Every structure is written in structure tokens, then in C-alpha cells.
């Protein structure tokens, strides 16, 4: 393994510490190396500030002069709430910058690399570019398509059910799988559920068991705002953000009630009798979200799949069978032909406690 690959892998691991906490900014990592010795490192702070480069340069101090900076995304070149990172790198005397990919934000888009080269700094690109693309996929999607990247999680019985016929669902999977799900929540900007799940399960949707962290935004898709005001979400909305995406026909008294408990209301257009899924995600993108973790229920999951808006599927399958009378994990998709079904390709599988976790990405098998 070359030194560039080794140090870039380190920088990527640092950047991942910010996943779910830096939106609308990307979660970037930076390592500064002098004579193959790490003299500074950092990652994007909560809320997107300070930037990774700024923190790494502060740690390195005078040792940054003549050193190499490994940054997991092209350094910014525009003046925002803080000066550009390119200016900071130049002022610190960095001699070489290694960054895997260009920033697709129009305010940067190659300008950062150009500014560094114009200052006489050597710029190397392409190192672990695939890994960086995967880490920044949500940020790129919001910049390029206007919506966050969507991961759909389903925890089911062996025969694909999420509850018994009477609605009992706690717990199909074991504690180890639930702990992994909390970790997945922590790495996303927001957790999304449908109104039916909110009513049936009264979830808190918070990350537990991970200490004091910046909690993801909790989002409910509820056309009529028909989620109980005595729910856990309502009772904690002033402490952990709750956003409710609703339709134009939601009752005004429910508007006032949910605003009164501290929720943020986001109006969305309808597609037929349900919220327009693509418009809903665009609204979330406008709010700055880059990564959304959808935990159901079946109707919302089917809507997102039908609209081709699911980028990643994560399944947890338990060794229990609930039978045909159990509640299915997905609502109706209206498919007549197999080729019409959404296709995903398997990228990971493994045992988690007594359950099986399997992860799939959008698109058919390559080759």
C-alpha cells in the first residue's frame, strides 16, 4: 500500500466521523503529513463548521509548511461563513495536496484545485476516488439532483412480514440488530417514517446507546398531520427536531397544534391521494439534508420504491415465520411483470446476533 493510499484511507475514516452531523456541508476528513509523520488531522465539525482543513492546519501549526495535505474532497474556493480552505492551505505553506475527487458544487467545481496549482502547490487527484464518491454520495446527490440520498431499512421475519395480523411487531429482530440500526441512524441527517408507523409504534426515532451526539432530524410524512399530539415525537419536539411533511389539505387546527409543540411543518404537493414522494425529497434537499434513513412503514416504502427514489436497501431478516396473515413489509407496488420490479445489487451480507443483515445498492448486477 502506497503512502498516499494509506494516508487517504486515514482521512476518509476521519471524515466518516462527521456523517449525519455536518449537513448541508459534506463530511470531510483531512490529514497533514510531513516526512511520513502525521502532524495534523481534523474532520468537519457539527453543523458543517469548522472545516476539516482548518482543524488539521491548527493542529499542525508551523509543521504544515512544506507538508502534504490529504483531503477527502476538493478544498473549497469560495467565501462563505468562513474564508476558503484553499487560502488557508496556501497561507500555511502546504506544498502538496492529495484529494480524491472534485467538488460538484458550482461554487467550487475545480476552482479549488486551480487556485492551489496557481499558487505552486502540487495537486494529486484520484486516490481512493471510489471510496470518496461513496462517502460523499448524499452531498453530491443534493447538489446535482436537489434531493438527499435515501436508505430504506426493513426489519422482517423470514417470510417478509413486519408484524403479526394483530399488529404486534416488537421485537422481530434481536438487540444486536437494533443496536446496528441505531448506528445507522447516527450516520444519517434524518430518520423518515410514514404517519401509519408513527401512529402504530409511537417511536422516538432517536439514537440511543451512542452517548451525547447530534441527533438526526425526525421526519414524518403525514398528509393530514394525523399523528397523535400525545406521541413521543410531539412530546420531545422542542428537544430533538421534528419535521412533518404534509399535504395542502391538512387541517389548520393541526397546523397550529404541531407548531405549538415545536415541530417544523413542510408543505408538499400531492400525487393522487398521497404526498408526491419526489417533491417531498426535493423539499428536504432544500432544507439542506443530504442523507435520509427511511424506517417505513409499508406504504411509504412502496411509494419510494415505485418512484425509483431508494438508493440503498438495508434488510434485517429474523429466523421467525409469521405467515400469510402477517402484515407485509411493503405496500402494493402495482407490478404485473417481473422486469418492472425495482432491482438492487447485493454489496454486503452477514450475521448480526441471531439475524441476517443484507445491504443492496440501486441498479442490477454489473457486467
Order of helices and strands: HEEHEHEHEHHEEHEHEHEHEEEHEHEEEE
CATH class of the largest domain: Alpha Beta
- Assign a percent range to the helix content: 25-40%
Structural class: alpha/beta
CATH topology of the largest domain: Dihydrofolate Reductase, subunit A
* Domain count: 2
CATH superfamily of the largest domain: Dihydrofolate Reductase, subunit A
**Arithmetic mean pLDDT:** 92
CATH architecture call of the largest domain: 3-Layer(aba) Sandwich
Number of DSSP-assigned strands: 18
Largest beta-sheet characterization: 9 strands, mixed
Strand content: 15-25%
Termini gap: 28 Å
Q: In words, what does this structure look like?
A:
It is a single chain. With 367 residues, the protein is α/β, with parallel strands linked by helices. It has two domains: 3-138, Cytidine Deaminase, domain 2 (3-Layer(aba) Sandwich), CATH 3.40.140; 146-362, Dihydrofolate Reductase, subunit A, CATH 3.40.430. The protein is 28% helix and 24% strand. The chain contains twelve helices and 18 strands. It has a nine-stranded mixed beta sheet. A hairpin with a 2-residue loop joins strand 12 and strand 13. It is globular. Its EC number is 3.5.4.26, 1.1.1.193. Residues 1-124 form the CMP/dCMP-type deaminase domain. Keywords: Hydrolase, Metal-binding, Multifunctional enzyme, NADP, Oxidoreductase, Riboflavin biosynthesis, Zinc. One of its GO terms (biological process) is riboflavin biosynthetic process. Substrate binds at residues 185, 205, 208, 295.
